[in-house]
Structure formats: C-alpha cells, structure tokens
Inverse folding.
C-alpha cells in the first residue's frame, strides 16, 4: 500500500513576487494616508479648451454691446440739452471770442488793436502786439462785466464800429518790440484831434492817464503820441458823440514784463480809468 504523495510547493517568480510586494506596500501606504487625511477631495474637472474660448467670446460681445448702449445714451442726453463736458478755459492771449455781454450798467466798447487784421508789432520770439492787446481787452471786459457793465469787444475794423454809440470807447494797443533807446518806456493816451465832444474826450483821457499810471507804475510818454493815434480810424467811424480814446499800454521791449507778467495790473488801470469817467469823477 502506497503512502500519501508529497506535494511539491509551487515556485513563484522572484520578479513577480517583488511586484506583488510593491503593490501590497503601496496599498498599505495609501490606506494609512487615507486614515491620516480623510477622504481625498475629488479633482476639479477641467474645462475643455473649446468651451473656454466660447465663454470668452461671449463675454467680449456683451462688453461691446454695453459700451455701444452707453455711448448712444450719452449722445441722446446731449442732443436733449443734457450736460456736456466743459471746454477748457483759454489762457492769457489765447482767447478766441470777441463777445458782447449785456449788463445793467453803461455800455463800453473795447477795440482789441489789430485783431483779425494784422499782427501789429512782432517780437523776435513770436509774441505779437495783437495777442497782447487781446489778452488785455478780455481782462478789461471781464472786470467790467463783473460790475454790471455792457461790454462789446471789437475787432480792429469791426463792422459794428460804424455809428457805434456807447458811454465810452477805448482802443487798446502796445508799442514797438524793437529796442529804440533807454527812454522808450511808458504808456500813451490820446483822443481824436478834432473832437465833437472835447470836454468829455479830455476827461476820459485824463482819467485813463492818472489811473493807469497808478496801477502799473509806468510813466506817461507824451513826446511820442503820433498822428496815427490822434487820427485813429475808429474815431471817424463811431458816433461823433461817443467819447473815445486810444491807449498804447507800453513798449513791448522795455515794458514787456509789465505787459505780460503783470497783465492784471494793466487791465485794472484801464478799468479804473473807465470807472473814473463813467462815474463822473475828475482825473
């Protein structure tokens, strides 16, 4: 009788056993990590590239549409008289309008010398008499209007000069920009040679002389009053009963600092002279 057969143990591949050990070790490590950290969060699903591009395109379209709607609304508001952005204020010598403003006080005409005709005297750096005159004219008009005067700022050969009637008219000019001599400094005021209202014209000239000198500190340059001043064309265009004067505010060479850097003093001197005249004061 044969005894029980002995079973030969199955041999396992060393390489396979190594893999299995690695797998078992990995499973154990994963289990331990799960115990320490708890359940791991699910990975965030990625958005397909195509969907992302479509969403970005839709967002751009919406923004463009909103911008178009806003622009249309702004134009509609402006067309109905809604608020608009204010225009920048012009700086000295850069104003472009010569307006008329009505007030309750006397009417004053201000001729801005050479305006819309020629440049007048021209300095080496490009500064012109016409620019300087207009700067002063606008400043004078602004002060007068703030005091209730009606002011017309007129061009050199303004059509409104024909038969012009006012409490007074003054034409603002400046003298040469070239160096003449050390005495070429100061201002001049003159009236028409053959005035129809000499007493009024003389009082206007006297008021301007004293008040302008007090404001600017410039001296009266009497010896250089020219025929062009006493026979100034505007004197023969306005109504003969309108008192009028022409002022040369200073020389653009030696008096340039006063005419440009102290333009407010120049304007105030002219204004004070007009106040003196219209208020019936003596020079």
């Amino acid at each position: 009788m044969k005894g029980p057969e002995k079973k030969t143990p199955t041999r396992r591949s060393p390489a396979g056993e190594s893999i299995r050990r690695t797998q078992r070790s990995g499973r154990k490590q994963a289990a331990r990590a799960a115990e320490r950290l708890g359940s791991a969060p699910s990975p965030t699903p990625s958005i397909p590239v195509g969907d992302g591009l479509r969403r970005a395109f839709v967002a751009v379209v919406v923004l463009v549409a909103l911008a178009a709607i806003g622009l249309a609304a702004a134009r509609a508001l402006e067309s109905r008289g809604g608020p608009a952005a204010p225009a920048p204020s012009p700086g000295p010598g850069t104003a472009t309008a010569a307006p008329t403003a009505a007030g309750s006080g006397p009417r004053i005409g201000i001729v801005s010398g050479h305006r819309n005709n020629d440049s007048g005297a021209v300095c080496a750096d490009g500064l012109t008499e016409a620019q300087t005159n207009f700067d002063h004219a606008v400043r004078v008009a602004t002060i007068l209007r703030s005091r209730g005067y009606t002011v017309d700022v007129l061009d050199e050969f303004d059509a409104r000069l024909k038969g012009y009637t006012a409490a007074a008219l003054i034409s603002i000019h400046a003298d040469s920009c070239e160096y003449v001599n050390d005495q070429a400094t100061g201002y001049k005021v003159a009236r028409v040679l053959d005035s129809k209202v000499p007493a009024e014209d003389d009082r206007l000239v006297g008021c301007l002389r004293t008040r302008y000198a007090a404001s600017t500190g410039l001296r009266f340059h009497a010896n250089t009053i020219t025929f062009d001043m006493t026979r100034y064309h505007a004197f023969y265009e306005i109504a003969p009963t309108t008192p009028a004067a022409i002022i040369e505010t200073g020389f653009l060479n030696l008096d340039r600092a006063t005419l440009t850097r102290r333009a407010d003093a120049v304007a105030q001197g002219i204004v004070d002279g007009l106040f003196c005249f219209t208020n019936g004061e003596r020079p």
About this structure: The longest strand covers residues 168-175. The beta strands are 100-101, 107-112, 150-154, 168-175, 188-190, 244-251. The helical segments are 14-37, 49-79, 129-146, 198-216, 227-230, 256-261, 263-278.
